[in-house]
User: Fold these one by one.
Assistant:
Number 1:
Amino acid sequence: MRALLLLAASGVAAALLFSLSAAAAPPSKSGSFTNYSLGETTGTTCPGSSACSNIAAEPAIRADGAGRFFGSSENGLGGGTVAFRSTDGGLHYTTLVSPNGISQTNDTGFAPGGGDTDLAVAPDKNAAGFYNVYVASLSLVNVDVSNSTDGGATWSLNPVTTPETVDDREWIAADTNNKVCISYHDAPQGITVGCSTDAGLLFTQFASALDTNHAFQISENGIGNLAIDPASHVIYQTYSAITTAAETLCAPQLGVSAGTCGYHGVYMAVSTDGGATFTDYPVYINPDPTVGYGHQFVNVSVDSAGNVYSVYTDDHHVYYSFSRDHGQTWSGPYLITTTSGTQIFPWSTAGDPGKLDVVYYQTPYYDGVNTPDNYPSSAAWTVGFAQNLNALSPGSAWSRQTASPTNHFGGVCEAGVTCNGNRDLFDDFGVAASPTTGLASIIYSDDQFDPNGPNTSGCDATTNDTSSCNHTAIATQTSGTGIFAVKKKK
């Protein structure tokens, strides 16, 4: 994960310098996108300011019930988290006060956080008429949760006292107007889910997402994100893993060292009692044990009718499965992307019943031999956007388009803290859709120098495709079909 890598390398993210990239992606069935860089300084509105550059990466994004988009991105462990808000459908984003920077005196770890950020928005309004916003971040080996009850104007930081001594790659999801849950890899590489019923002030309930029948998957799994259905309150934790106890002998230890079998199973841990206990269901088990889905990251999303979607990649293409019975049985896999090239790092957001948006990094390059880590400099990466308005129908059609200009050339390392190659795209990015317009806004990483500027100090034509130009950018859908029926703002 980015946080631990930066700690091992330098302790801070000061060496990361980023730039602006602004362009319009070509239109297609799903419409067109506008792209621009975000800012770093509180109060900066982008695009349109000379301060629209940043040094952040590995971002997350969500939309609240009023159609406001909230994004977060990390400056690296010790560097803090950056947050953004859009009130005009993603056409402009304003940089907010740092969720953990303003409250760093409350941090019992390595202030002010800044590792492995994730973000959640409550589905119901609080007493003040806002939807609580939560930003999770790693702080040394601890998880910090910052919450805002006033639309991102102010934040309160609450370090989470977890039962374990070491935590990594946390995720966060919200329910009602005051419940919020986190999940993370614990010290033995199990998966823990912890919940708070007072808007993140205290986390008092912790449970393993791996049930007793799947205890053999401890130390042999790749964690995915956490999601909660606001209607049924069912909690979903997705992951990839080995599929039998015997495979512990051939698996890649902790997903790092080589093995003769991979994480060829995709699973969904389901809790129907508020996170107290979980039952693990197989989403898809590939009969080829050498296939691996432990790439950043398997993903889960839930539509407005409670249908659940699992999205995953085999390091070549992106697939999905769906469940109509709260994750107990699954249909799939079905191909989302094209049959050529390479697509990795998927993320999804679901809207009205059967409507699904999926994003991924894509390149036309594929040689059938090398992993993306070792792709040549000729491999040009962009943000791919796929949409299905009938995703509950097996074999239904996807519309696909490129949503960004080129955001990287060359290899993309997927080995987390063990990476030896280029890691400018880090481990994940995200998409959200406005419930008031149905249109999407994508937040992503970009390491390209923009000749039209502005660029962060240190980013120029000679440092293109390096961490000196790394930054967080936005691609917002400006026309086309959305995944929610258009309605008035709440």
Number 2:
Amino acid sequence: MTKAADRGAIAIVLHTHMPYVEGFGTWPFGEEWLWEAIAGSYLPLLDVLDRGAPVTLSLTPVLGDQLAAPGVGERFLAFVHDMRAETHRIDAEGCRAGGRDHLAAELERAAGDYARAADRFECRGGDVLGALARHAAWTSSATHAVLPLLATDAGVRLQLSAGIAAHRARSGEAWRGGFWLPECAHAPWLDPLLEEAGVHATCVDLTGVLGHGDERHLRPIASAAGPLLVPVDRAVMDLVWSDAGYPAHGAYRDYHHRTTHDHRPWANDGSVYDPARASAQARADAADFVARAARRVAGGGLSVCALDTELLGHWWYEGVTWLEAVVDEAGRQGLALVGLDDALAEAAPAPPPPAHQGVTTWGTQRDLSTWSSPRVADLAFAARHAELRVVAAGTRADERAVRELLALQSSDWAFMVSRDLAEPYGRERAAAHAAALDAALGAPGAGGPHLRGLAPYASTAALLAP
């Protein structure tokens, strides 16, 4: 294994991603999601990362595309200064009029979160992308496509080359080959294409292959084609990311119970939210997490706890507080918290398990059903059909057609449908990109509406690779 893993270590990997919503809708579905993630997750997390927390950050190119788009800063500030200030005021007034002064006071306190987010944003010169990119060790495919669902090697090469080029341009040439497979969707036939693109390590979810809690999750695996396959460790992840995980504690803010204007002044136990109580709980849960993780690796090995960045701060309001406390607790309890690239540089990988022959993901059933079940089969087949058409067109497919294909291939549209999150929005987006692709292939070079800042490093040359 590694020097750190010989005595037991944990790597926290934060996968930072947002579907391309900038410029596509507002409330309840659309770019408001991006503004909330900036305010609640990215800016608070940057404060922790800037203090040197040894956390591995992956940043998807499609999120970077949105953060780089013209006018994003102005619209974000308008959102936090105007919309969020006003909606908190209206809801607080309504609570007071109904005799619920404690709820009103919590709403007024919470409004300050957005004012502080604006201050953080302006102190960074409005450059959230640059601040995140400095910490982003890992990249991903151009638009978060589920790569095993793509129809051709050329389509995979297009997603890989556009995503890696974007990362190199934004984060510098120090990339060490870490690549987040969208949805942890892996198939062995991808490995040669990953290695060809310069990918040397990627995370996989082998829970369905090895079994929950198996010690083999604590050691990277050598693929036949070259890239290290790094199992994520659900025995540790589930402490956070499960129905009974830490965010479900009664003291934490209830994400689902909302006011008229989408604010959350309640705790999970139904009481009025108390930030001091919740912060104390976050510190207690951080201590518990570190103690359990230390027991998990007491015999050696590397536990990889992979989480969506947006869970911290946005979905789980106290998540960034918890993460900061985890960093402190790891030092106090003597648990090695390591960057994943550093740990893998010293790795002595294991051979692949014989059972690992098919597709694995971190989705429902650890397979592709979230993105290709009967409920969303039409989306999967439409994307594959579109890919075959673009690949067949080759260099006759113009930039607009390529970018619409990349947009159509995003895993997010099917996810929204399968998980009942925003089915109309997901279907509308997929249908619109398919129609725009049809128009682009029907009249190459004719111009037309641009897909804003999506995939600026995409090139048709990837479609011609052998």
Number 3:
Amino acid sequence: MFHNPPTMTTTPALALRADQRPSFDDLRDAAARISGLAHVTPVLRSASLDALAGCELYFKCENFQRVGAFKFRGAANAVFSLSEEQAARGVVTQSSGNHGAAVALACALRGINCTVVVPGAAARIKRAAIARHGARIVDCDVAQSARNEATARVLAETGGELVHPYNDGRVIAGQGTAALELLHQVDRRGVARDSGPILDVVMAPLSGGGLMSGTAIAAHGVHPGIRVIAAEPEGARDGHDSLVSGTRITGRVANTISDGLRAELGPLTFDILRDHVERVLLVSDAETVAAMRLVYERLKILIEPSCAVPLAAVLRNRTLFAGQRVGIILSGGNVDLDTLPSLFSLAPEPFEWP
């Protein structure tokens, strides 16, 4: 366990910089800014999944968000908070897919230029989405260092405004609006008990930490007693190891089918998560695919592997969540359908959880 949840205080919101840690007020500003741009996504329940997990599960379906992922929230907040002078220079970002598509769409909606640095191994469906929204694609190798080098080169060439996929306060604030919505929607269902937290636990997958950071700020801004737990693949456990050691780990090569969870924590997200996250739970790729299948079978929706990691973590750690009310951000649903047979072969039915 990394910490005891802090007591949140709010201060008057100011213009948020990319390198600035967002406050709870910044998240509320982001919610107002992207209202009408981002979809209000539904919260789904499943009695059979509750019975299997031994707890109440509330699934925030960001796979129904524009571009099929939560990433549009952060991208829209960042792009639409740019000054006219910044916007005129265009936007540059790096992405394996969902963030790139989200920034490309946000830029198209604002009518400004967008360049996305994309690793060659990015999923075909995600690469196509970036191009469909009119962005210029610049190829690079998969390693984080290669992505950073290519991004720096494009920024020098274009003079554009960097919208980092996760280490950006504007992006983090936008991502946090998903958890704000989740807590509001669950509260309206009459789940809140007395003066306690609306949900006992809020979870999201962990990669670079943008979604997890925004989720944590939102949860503790609503109620400091909400437990914030992250989930991460065993083959990309740099976030877990960074938070356990107290030192941000960089330079590892991830080995996981969860292509959206291969990034490493940034300085900004590492700082936020150290203050807010109780723990990071690890799961195998087979457990991830089994959870992905369960969501498909029980909720009747298709999610990408990265999105299934939190549910896999709950099922692997039932005693930790027994009897709790657990909110899970389903982060995205962009799956190359041609890969489904090989994916599902990693966890044939029936799957034995630990």
Number 4:
Amino acid sequence: MADYDMQAYSAEINLVAAQIARAAADEYNKKTPEKPRFVAGVLGPTNRTCSISPDVNDPNFS
């Protein structure tokens, strides 16, 4: 979000997105409780590497 100078909105955007997903899952759980729905989150896409390797081209680098 920093690329667009919107980093101050990241937490709010993610919170509201999770709330919307939770509400949708809850709505369908009421209709068919035998098929529970879950909400999960993920990181991405990003222009930053998430590798802990100092060489991003070799993830096994020690």
